[in-house]
Write a structure and sequence with these properties.
Mean pLDDT: 92
Shape: globular
CATH topology of the largest domain: TIM Barrel
Bound molecules: flavin mononucleotide
Order of helices and strands: EHEHHEHEHHEHEHEHEHHHHHHH
CATH architecture of the largest domain: Alpha-Beta Barrel
Structural class: alpha/beta
Number of strands: 8
């Protein structure tokens, strides 16, 4: 059976929505995808179709939940299971101000008792695999002994898959700086894999090259990449072959065309705009000129232009960068 966790695309708010995930799937079939974090209350009180519906091609895809109320999390997880997610993941790594005031995200690393109650309640109510995404510590809750105790306690509650962002979180730093200022400590994560060989450990943070992914896989079970994938989605074209030894014959041009057709079939303007924002990440890699990007946006929005002509403005650049298909 394929270990889809070998390569994971990180949950990212306002980035890994269903449109981005659809696009990512045009370039990798084997990697694991995750939604943005969705708070359990949003699922219980909001429009669940809008929040949770996804395209069948996205599998395998995990739903990331945020929250710290055991009952609400369990109810949200049940709904996620009904929508067909392959995994439910709990965010135990986000350090934002909002998260701090709600006492969830990484602040659950300070309150393992409450985290345990959340895990018990969710696990009691779903059959879908339930996993945790955490950090190596938060504030003065840090160090080898702390992380070992944390993983041991959480494992005792029945969690067997941990995604570990290899830097601690610092209260008071904004989320962006919390992704760069606290130093990465991969060795500590490797030590945890040695200490808990039965647990699946997926490492995350600052990984950008396929060679580094391969190196990490010598020490842990899986690797998760976030910012690199968002800024360069075509990177994913290497993953099936290089990481899964599985030739899926996905091609850059074809994937792009599929995504364009997808955009043109969206009927909600807000969705189209979000989907285009993701597309521009790719275009940036193909065409550096502003004019080309502007022309492309204009073409997409002009309903009278035929799909095959939408690409005309960067055909030349696309041919020049044909190596993207095979790299
Ligand atoms: C814009 C943005 C939004 C993020 N949103 C989430 C989120 O919703 N849930 C989560 O667990 N992590 C979130 N993260 C953190 C990433 O999942 C990941 O842990 C972090 O970016 C480090 O990985 P990287 O160095 O490969 O980007 C976000 C990161 C970014 C850049």
């Amino acid at each position: 059976m394929v270990n889809h966790h070998k390569f994971c695309i990180a949950p990212m708010m306002k980035k890994t929505d269903k449109h981005f995930r659809f696009m990512a799937r045009q370039f990798t079939k084997n990697s694991m995808l995750y939604t943005e974090m969705i708070h359990s209350n949003a699922i219980l009180k909001g429009d669940t179709d809008k929040l949770l519906k996804f395209d069948n091609s996205e599998h395998p895809v995990g739903l990331q939940l945020g929250g710290s109320d055991p009952q609400s999390l369990a109810q949200a997880a049940i709904i996620g299971e009904e929508y067909g997610y392959d995994e439910i993941n709990l965010n135990v790594g986000c350090p934002s101000k909002k998260v701090k005031s709600g006492n969830f995200g990484v602040f659950l690393m300070k309150n393992v008792e409450l985290l345990g109650s959340c895990i018990n309640e969710v696990k009691k109510n779903i059959n879908t695999p339930f996993t945790i995404k955490c950090r190596i510590g938060v504030d003065n809750f840090e160090g080898e002994k702390y992380l070992e105790n944390f993983l041991s306690t959480v494992s005792d509650h029945g969690i067997n898959t941990f995604i570990v962002h290899a830097r601690k979180a610092i209260s008071g730093l904004d989320t962006k700086r919390n992704r760069s200022i606290p130093p990465l400590n991969y060795d500590l994560v490797y030590k945890m894999k040695e200490r808990f060989p039965e647990q699946k450990i997926i490492i995350n943070g600052g990984i950008e090259e396929i060679s580094d992914v391969k190196t990490q896989l010598k020490f842990v079970d899986g690797v998760m990449l976030g910012r690199k994938i968002y800024s360069d989605p075509a990177f994913l074209l290497q993953v099936d072959k290089e990481i899964y030894s599985n030739v899926t014959n996905l091609e850059f041009g074809k994937g792009l065309q599929n995504y364009m057709s997808y955009i043109l079939n969206l009927d909600n303007k807000k969705d189209v705009n979000r989907a285009i924002t993701h597309l521009l990440q790719i275009i940036r890699k193909i065409s550096n000129t502003r004019e080309v990007r502007k022309q492309l946006l204009h073409n997409i929005r002009d309903n009278s232009i035929d799909l095959k002509d939408v690409f005309d403005c960067f055909k030349e650049d696309l041919t020049q960068k044909a190596h993207l298909q095979t790299r």
